Amino acid sequence: MKRWVIAALRLWPVFLLLAAGIALHAQQPAQASLPTVTVDFGKTPQGPGLSSTLQAMLVLTVLTLAPTILVTTTCFTRIAVVLQFLRQGMGTQQAPSNQVLISLSLVLTFFVMAPVGREINNTVLQPLNRNELTVDQAMTKAAAPLKVFMLKHTRKKDLSLFINIAKTPPPQTKADVPLEVLVPAFLISELKTAFEIGFLIFLPFLIVDMVVASVLLSMGMMMLPPVSISLPFKVLLFVLVDGWYLIVGSLVRGYTG
User: Fold this and answer.
1) For a Cys-Cys bond, which of 66, 68, 132, 185 suits 127, CB 3.0-4.6 Å?
2) Is the peptide bond preceding residue 171 cis, with omega within 30 degrees of 0?
3) CA 8 from centroid of its chain's CA atoms
4) DSSP letter, residue 134
5) What is the pTM of this model?
6) Closest listed residue to residue 95, CA positions, set 240, 192, 234
7) CA distance 209 to 230
8) Which residues contact 91 (CB under 8 A, 6 or more apart)?
9) 147/150 Cα distance (integer angstroms)
10) Closest Cα to residue 253, out of 76, 112, 73?
11) 209 vs 101, higher pLDDT
12) 118-130: per-residue pLDDT in tens?
């Protein structure tokens, strides 16, 4: 009997805590409502607009993706690869340097893409600043000039390859071509064209190397590296034919012609 009394006394505080918890639970409402958060974007004639803070975030996001957009949707890839082939063909290791070649590629890219940029500015950016377009409409319209430019310089064979891999229905018009299919097709088309130009650039320099090597071999100067002798002749040949004028002119006319 004493054991039962001692056990009841020990469990009594537990019973009190349970009773207090049940009473507090009974006093609370059946469903507790969570606080709600509302974000106001403002109003425009076409619907809700973005606040200045969200517009700044959107601009920063675009700037973060700018290098990828520059490489994948413009003529930068072809120009940069051709200039690298030119430096390797001449045999100059660090002249021009990488910074100079990339800067020249950027300048030529901006020159070639200037009409596309002006069209995007007139049809997308200016109406967006006047709140005449929504963000979705602006993104759709901005992709249209880039599609026209990329389709003009994309081989049909490369485009068909990625359409078959993606298993998408053949597009009826140029506007129906999806960007996820067009971008890789445009890239491999640009790389193929750049390698073709690089091969043509290598040929005259290769002839100079062969002539110099043959002359040194006939003179018995086998211990003298032919590259060190042919380098001045290749630079002289490039200067005499005005190589920068020819290469840069052919690259730019390949897009604007």
Assistant:
1) 132
2) no
3) 75
4) -
5) 0.69
6) 234
7) 6
8) 205, 227, 230, 231, 234
9) 5
10) 112
11) 101
12) 888 888 777 777 7
Yes or no: say if 205 and 89 are a contact pair by the CB < 8 Å rule: yes
What are the helix (H) ranges across 91-225?
98-112, 114-120, 126-129, 135-152, 156-166, 179-218
Q: Which helix (H) or strand (E) holds 48?
A: strand 47-48
List Cβ neighbours of 32 (8 Å cut-off, separation of 6 or more): none
**What is the three-class DSSP state of 15?**
helix
Instruction: Give the residue carrying structure tokens 């602006």.
Output: 138
Tokens at residue 80, please? 């940069």
Decide: 150 and 73 in contact? Cβ < 8 Å: yes
- Using an 8 Å Cβ cutoff, are 81 and 194 in contact? yes
Least Cα distance to 120 among 152, 101, 99, 145 occurs for: 145
The stretch 8-33 carries a mean pLDDT of 44
- For 35, phi then psi, to 5°, come to -70, 145
Q: Does the pLDDT value for residue 9 go beyond 80? A: no
